[in-house]
Specification:
It comes from Clostridium disporicum. The protein is of the alpha+beta class and 206 residues long. The chain has two domains: 130 residues, 3-Layer(aba) Sandwich (NADH Oxidase); 60 residues, putative nitroreductase (tm1586), domain 2 (NADH Oxidase, 3-Layer(aba) Sandwich). The chain contains six helices and seven strands, in the order ααβαβαβββαββα. The strands form two sheets. The protein has a four-stranded antiparallel beta sheet with strand order 1-2-4-3. A three-stranded mixed beta sheet has the order 5-6-7, with helices on one face. The chain is globular, with a radius of gyration of 17 Å.
């Protein structure tokens, strides 16, 4: 499955089967996370067979079911922390999709105190991503129009349109899609809007 196909296939899934993640799949995902951490300086962690983080009122309120695996998005505090968390986290989400797993970004509806992850000095946890074999593949989210999310200085080139189509497939908090791309000459700039998690969302979109 190539990357654009994975983007189209990925939908947020909150209910999972009790099937354990295949050992070879888990190893491949772990290796990919290690590569991303080396390249980015992040400390993203794969947490398997660990049901405590989603064994809470908040998780049930968020309609999560059978979440026994998740990815903890941990990194160094700093100005671009949230955007980096979104960027590298979504790279891993798309890899997980290619490996046949379902996922969901989770910022609030899990128990931070019960989650099992390691934090080094100067680091913090941004959020987690639930992971497993979904009871369903989820459903596509509603999208704003491409034109409302970008500004171009001429007729939209095909390569830019393809990029915007990919951006529309990205998950964002409350499906708010508060981001804006601008094309001037051959330079693309991307900006986050106002609101909760918009910097994280911009990283995911990028």
């Amino acid at each position: 499955m190539e990357i654009f196909e994975a983007m189209k296939k990925r939908h947020s899934v909150r209910s999972y089967t009790s099937e354990k993640i295949d050992t070879n799949v888990a190893k491949e995902l772990e290796l990919y996370i290690d590569e991303c951490n080396k390249e980015s300086g992040m400390n993203i962690q794969l947490c398997l067979s660990e049901p405590n983080a989603f064994n809470s009122f908040m998780a049930h309120y968020g309609s999560f079911k059978n979440v026994n695996n998740y990815i903890a998005i941990v990194g160094k505090k700093g100005k671009d922390f949230e955007e980096k968390c979104g960027y590298w986290g979504e790279k891993i989400v798309l890899k997980a999709t290619q490996l046949g797993l379902s996922t969901c970004w989770v910022a609030m509806t899990y128990s931070k105190g019960k989650a099992k992850y390691n934090i080094e000095k100067g680091e913090k946890l941004s959020c987690v991503i639930s992971l497993g074999y979904g009871e369903s593949e989820g459903v596509p989210h509603k999208n704003k129009s491409i034109e409302s999310l970008c500004t171009v200085d001429r007729e939209m080139p095909e390569w830019f349109k393809k990029g915007m189509e990919a951006a529309l497939l990205a998950p964002t908090a409350m499906n708010q899609q508060k981001f804006h791309f601008t094309l001037e000459g051959n330079t693309v700039t991307a900006k986050a809007g106002m609101g909760f998690y918009t910097k994280l969302d911009l990283g995911i979109v990028k």
